[in-house]
Specification:
Layout: H1 15-28, H2 49-62, E1 65-70, H3 74-82, H4 84-90, E2 93-98, H5 102-111, E3 117-121, H6 122-130, E4 141-156, E5 170-172, H7 179-190, E6 196-198, H8 202-210, E7 216-221, E8 238-239, E9 250-255, E10 270-282, H9 289-303, H10 305-311, H11 331-339, H12 356-391
Parallel strand pairs: 1-2, 1-3, 5-6, 5-7
Antiparallel strand pairs: 3-10, 4-7, 4-8, 4-10, 9-10
């Protein structure tokens, strides 16, 4: 990401010229000093072969390396393994990174060093645009393609028969800023059901649900999920249906006995909704080395889609020409689709024009949030130092 600013004062390029003039003026006032006739021999610095070899190896390994962040590493490991064969002869290598949450993953693509790609839910992208970490996020974050869908799975105890029964009850939405939490918050708000939300890791929440300490948990993931694979029929846990369509971001889907033989009966499939995911990329300048790496990966990704599809059923679900509403497709992906004779679906981007007062208000809000963040970070740092000092006593 490039930043530019206005420098007021003496230009840096003028300083050497001014210094030279002062040196000449100083020399005119001084007696001439005899200078040696022979110039000293240049010193030759020898490079340790072992050090040079290590540097060359480091450059070779990093030359085709791109980083990708996601909430779970299953998807990114699928990609990395599918590209392993190609990496052997053209140095392409994908480095999977476990993210700290869906919202954070979007910010990591835009702000974190070493991160070029991310897998992010489409409703999280919408939330990122509504509440951006800085103005103009769409200039820096673009999508390569829409990927597979994740299903909203609400698992409840025996005394809960519908989502309406969860009013005021303890319901786990997953960790804060996670994809599950973002989706659950949106859906429950749309359904006008306000539960007592907890933010626990899903395995811990499942344990509490089994003990009756919470009434339900919401997990957004591709079905069948490994989190639910060990649930026995005698535990009397079951999925709650989501009827209707809470928002335009979600499509209707059904959870069947084929997905969870121990949780869903053959004659009673459960209606729910699903949310899309997208492969997003940082919009590097086209003449930069990082753009070339990202471009290289995009070409390989489209060329090896069949290899991805062989690794897991969820990879069969997506259409690479589908657009992500409100966002711009990465140029290299757009070009690849056109060369392949595939017509990219038109993006439904809505361009909002802001007047001067609106732009000033947006920037002022951004500055205020940045100041609050810095104040909180300083508080955390001071608090950490106090705890360390206490432990050393």
């Amino acid at each position: 990401m490039a930043f530019c600013g206005l420098f007021i004062g003496t230009p840096i390029w003028a300083e050497p010229q001014q210094q030279t003039f002062q040196d000449e003026q100083f020399q005119e006032d001084q007696p001439q000093i005899a200078r040696p006739k022979h110039k000293p021999k240049p010193v030759i610095h020898r490079v340790d072969p072992a050090v040079q070899f290590r540097h060359n190896l480091r450059d070779k390994i990093n030359s085709g390396l791109v980083g990708i962040v996601s909430e779970g590493t299953d998807e990114t490991v699928d990609m990395a393994l599918a590209l392993t064969a190609q990496a052997e002869h053209d140095r392409l290598r994908l480095l999977p990174i476990a993210g700290a949450g869906a919202s954070q993953n979007a910010e990591d693509v835009m702000l974190t060093r070493g991160v070029d790609f991310g897998i992010v839910q489409t409703d999280v992208l919408d939330e990122t645009k509504r509440n951006p970490p800085f103005p103009g996020v769409e200039k820096y974050l673009q999508y390569v393609t829409k990927l597979y869908d994740r299903q909203v799975q609400i698992l409840a105890g025996p005394d809960i028969q519908s989502i309406d029964d969860l009013r005021g009850k303890k319901v786990n939405f997953g960790l804060r800023d996670s994809g599950s939490c973002t989706t659950a918050t949106t859906i429950f708000k749309a359904l006008r059901v306000e539960p007592d939300v907890t933010n626990l890791p899903h395995p811990l929440a499942l344990d509490k649900l089994r003990r009756g300490e919470i009434s339900a948990l919401v997990y957004v993931a591709t079905k069948p999920s490994r989190v639910f694979q060990d649930i026995r029929p005698d535990e009397n846990l079951h999925f709650l249906p989501i009827t209707g369509k809470p928002t335009t971001n979600y499509a209707a889907i059904t959870i069947t006995a084929d997905d969870y033989p121990e949780l869903v009966s053959q004659d009673a499939p459960v209606k729910t909704v699903e949310v899309g995911t997208a492969l997003v990329a940082y919009n590097w300048p086209t003449n930069s080395e990082r753009y070339q790496r990202v471009n290289h990966f995009v070409q390989a990704f489209f060329a090896h889609i069949k290899d991805f599809q062989a690794s897991h059923p969820k990879w069969h679900q997506f259409d690479i020409t589908s657009s992500v509403s409100g966002w711009t497709r990465f140029p290299a992906a757009e070009q690849w689709l056109k060369k392949a004779g595939l017509t990219p679906e038109e993006s439904k981007t809505t361009i909002v024009h802001l007047d001067a007062k609106q732009r000033d208000a947006l920037f002022k809000d951004f500055v205020q949030r940045e100041a609050l963040f810095r104040e909180f970070a300083a508080y955390q740092k001071e608090r950490r130092q106090t705890i360390v000092a206490y432990d050393n006593q």
